[in-house]
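Reopening this ticket.

The earlier resolution said the output was attached, but the attachment link was broken on my side. Pasting everything inline this time so it's all in one place.
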Amino acid sequence: MLRFGFCNYFNEVKKFCRVRSNQQAKSGRPTVTGYTWKTGTSANWNNNGAWIGGIPNGTTADVTISVAGAYTVTLPSGTAYTVDSVLFNNSAASFSDAGTLTLGGLEANFTFDGNEFMLASTGVITGGLLDIDSGELFNQGGALKTKQLMIGAGGEIALNGKALTYAGAAVLDGDILGNNAAGNTLAITGSAAINDTIYLEDRATLVVAGTVTQSGPYDFLYLGNSGSDASLLDILGTGTYSLGVASAYTAYYTAIIGGGDGTVVNAGRLINSDPNWSGVPDYISAVVDSTGTIESDSGDLQLDNGGSIGGKLTGAGEIDFYSGNFLLSPTIAVSWSPSGVPGANSIVQLTGSNVTITYNSLTSSIYQLDNGYSTAKLQVSGGKLSVESGGYSYGEVLVTGGTFDALTGYDFVGLVSLGSAGTLEDDNGSMDFSGGAVLGGTIAGDNRLDGQLFFTGGNVALNSGFTVAASAVVLNFTGAALSLGANQTIAAPVVF
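Inline output:
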């Protein structure tokens, strides 16, 4: 397996430290002392008879635990030891930390290739690097205070129904497991990199209070492993979760995949930085509930499973509401930062999803409300959706309440349904209806002379309640089949 990011840094540090250790005698610095676990049976760290070389303690102590056998080495509660390094290399053996272990010295690392590394409720490990190459970091409520943490592709974290907080720099390339109960949380308050495909399973929650970057090639984060597995990615207000690194891997894409009932909750920043690879965007197939910022800085970020979207949508790339049912909440704001010619990219697309906008005032540079998918549906049920700089939609647009405001013109390629409590507002430019319309609400505008509604195709029905409230708006029915409801009149200039 290839490793990237922090992995390279950690591996280089370990290589450097080993070289330094070999050079210590020549340089006049204190030499390290080797200690080896000699018994194939379980014993405590402070058992002198279990060691070759005596009980290791000190910044020059290099420890090797590799003797065959299914045993457990226990650092007892109430004890405290310091080592330069520990190499634990026996897949059948385990380590239990119930005391305090400090990783000091030049190497300052604990490399674990064993069965279980148990962090007991009284246990503390602090200092340099804890590297779980293989085996399981089994959380029993202790304190993980190392500067660096690496969970390799062969390792995993078992949360065991308890919370675990990490404030250092981590690489999370192994799975994170709960126990199908409440309380399984891994909180990242420092930084972490995900460089491989990992699973968040059995009601585990990854809490992001610091920074997490998912940046390896084809690296996927699975939220849950079955339909009832409600594992969760929870991005707090202080947290940032990034999919990809700008221009780092132009031939790859990353994803967050809802393997069960997994959900992404975002109160901080959810960022996409990857350019599209061969037309394939980064995507999230879990439900997304966001009150924070969703930012697409490069390429597309495709949302595949619906959700509730508030807060802010921004970036120079594209946010694609691809499938599922989305509710754009009252607090939604859109800020578009184009990197090229205006209109070349969209900040919001609907490409097969249903989006409801309710009780909000949404002013946005939306150039394209879908991408040629006639199954997309946009519903405005309250407040106002304002579309700047022109736009078009192939799918159905329903204005059952509130206002759809075309600030500089709009093309409705799909069917338009205007309910009695809804308003279509044509402020400047024209609206073009080529897919038919059922209009029972109000046509408004700012009374500029160039405001026109062109009905160029399909069937147009003007039902009871249809009103033209802007005196300068012209209705042009060239190319459409018009039908009027009973006793319906048109109080506006008309062209046939």
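Reporter confirms the inline version is readable. The chain has one helix and 52 strands. The CA atoms of residues 345 and 446 lie 28 Å apart.
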